[in-house]
Design goal:
Layout (H helix, E strand, L loop, with lengths): L2 H23 L4 E3 L2 E3 L2 H5 L8 E8 L4 H22 L8 E4 L3 E7 L6 H8 L5 E4 L24 E8 L8 E7 L1 H10 L7 E2 L1 E4 L2 E4 L2 E2 L7 E7 L2 H12 L7 E10 L7 H24 L1 H23 L8 H29 L7 H33 L2 H35 L14
Antiparallel strand pairs: 1-2, 3-5, 3-14, 4-5, 6-10, 7-8, 8-13, 9-12, 10-11
Helix pairs in contact: 1-8, 1-11, 3-6, 7-8, 7-9, 8-9, 8-11, 9-10, 9-11, 10-11
């Protein structure tokens, strides 16, 4: 790799790191058209250990475990849809607790949606009736090929919020797509429609849509419009697509606000501690090791970005608990230790002989580093994985954090730190800039 190519690749890498860092660590949401972008850090800080939360409770009937598990699955699906479609951060990792008669959800507090809306979405039974009668009599009933009665939750394939740019008022609505069984029911139910009629969509006894109908329905996809906000349309779409509870759910409208588990100022304290470790380590590395310290700083940037992305998007214990925070700090310390070992090994090998070139010393140092990192890393990972498997609660979360942070530490040191040092060496051969004590060879 020649000098020019190294400069170009390093420049691209720096720009990429800055770009990813902005979108990973940006504390506020960014409005992009009709979509609100939330950075991974913004998602993590909505965890119940760092932000205020609310306990909301629903009454359920006594039932067997299978039906309770199915009910919880529907509830979790609705929470995921709330996060995806309404931008309420952290709710997909809400804490659930059940007894024989109640189902409680501890959700983060968010200004985007109020408690009433939460009860409206999470507490809806999801019992949909479609009829030409406003009271829901003579409902359209879908059946499968064997003649078994189906619920409309079994027949809805897709439901999204839409915007009708031809409407003078209340331009928002939903687009609803059903399967063959649903279409057959709609065809049969509307077969006699020959003039202006109204089709009623009734959810849990309440009319939630009443589009005009002039002829028989023959298409799988139909629209309901007439809502004045996108939030109303998205809420309706969630209720359509999220399914029906197999158990009877009753809204208690009972909720209780809870303070952050780690305290009111925990987020600020964690941020200051993390920033201090990062800044001090970067300054010390650059002052003591020159361009090798610059390589460390670039590799550290990628390590932190990957660490944040892994916690935000991988199926880990995604809410950021105290044990997870300790695991993150542990991972950063492991990363620093491996980089410190690499720079010291390189410096030692380079100065071990006046006739040794940088390339030879680099290969030797990397070989030693590889053996040490793999030996220590494997031992650490085996112990952490064992604790992850056999333990529960905060011990399991801490072990999980160690596993992923250690893997990322090893990957970043062996790939990124190594690559950046080699690239910087291609740009300049000046040993003084790398803080090597030997004279330039």
């Amino acid at each position: 790799m020649n000098k020019t190519k190294s400069i170009v690749l390093l420049s691209i890498s720096v720009v990429l790191i800055i770009f990813l860092a902005v979108f990973c660590f940006m504390p506020a949401k960014l409005a992009i058209g009709n979509y609100d972008y939330y950075s991974p850090v913004n998602q993590l800080v909505h965890s119940l250990d760092l932000a205020n939360g609310n306990y909301i409770t629903f009454d359920i009937e006594n039932a067997d475990t299978d039906k309770l598990d199915e009910t919880i699955s529907v509830l979790q699906n609705r929470m995921k849809l709330i996060e995806e479609r309404l931008g309420v951060q952290g709710i997909s990792q809400a804490i659930l607790s059940t007894t024989n008669n109640t189902l409680s959800v501890q959700i983060p507090d968010d200004e985007e949606i109020d408690i009433g809306s939460m009860f409206n979405i999470l507490g809806s039974q999801g019992d949909l009736v479609i009829s030409l009668k406003e009271d829901g009599s003579e409902p359209f009933i879908p059946y499968d090929d064997e003649g078994n009665k189906l619920s409309w939750a079994d027949c809805i394939e897709k439901c999204i919020a839409i915007y009708d740019n031809t409407a003078s008022k209340n331009p928002y609505g939903i687009s609803l797509t059903v399967n063959e069984y649903g279409l057959n029911a709609l065809k049969e139910g509307t077969a006699g429609v020959k003039e202006d009629s109204t089709l009623y969509f009734i959810m849990d006894g309440e009319v939630i849509g009443k589009p005009s109908l002039k002829s028989q329905i023959t298409n799988k996809t139909n629209q309901i419009t007439g809502y004045n906000t996108v939030a109303m349309a998205q809420t309706l779409a969630i209720k359509f697509i999220s399914g029906m509870y197999p158990l009877d759910i009753t809204n208690t409208m009972d909720y209780q606000t809870v303070n952050p588990t780690l305290g009111e100022n925990s987020l600020l304290a964690l941020g200051i501690a993390l920033l201090a470790v990062v800044v001090v380590s970067v300054v010390v590395f650059i002052v003591k090791y020159g361009l090798m310290g610059v390589a460390y700083a670039l590799s550290l940037g990628l390590f932190l970005i990957l660490l944040v992305l892994s916690y935000a998007y991988l199926p880990l214990n995604q809410y950021f608990s105290l044990s997870a925070a300790v695991g993150v700090l542990f991972g950063i310390c492991v990363f620093i230790a491996y980089n410190l070992l690499f720079t010291k090994l390189l410096k030692r090998q380079y100065n071990s002989s006046d006739k040794k070139t940088f390339s030879t010393a680099f290969a030797e140092a990397y070989s030693y580093l590889l053996k040490i990192v793999l030996d220590s890393g494997v031992c650490l990972l085996l112990a952490a994985i064992l604790f992850w498997i056999i333990s529960t609660g905060i011990v399991s979360t801490f072990a999980m954090a160690i596993v992923f942070s250690t893997i990322l530490s090893i990957v970043c040191v062996l790939l990124f730190t190594r690559g950046y040092i080699k690239s910087l060496r291609k740009i300049t051969q000046d040993d003084k800039k790398f803080k090597l004590t030997a004279e330039v060879k």
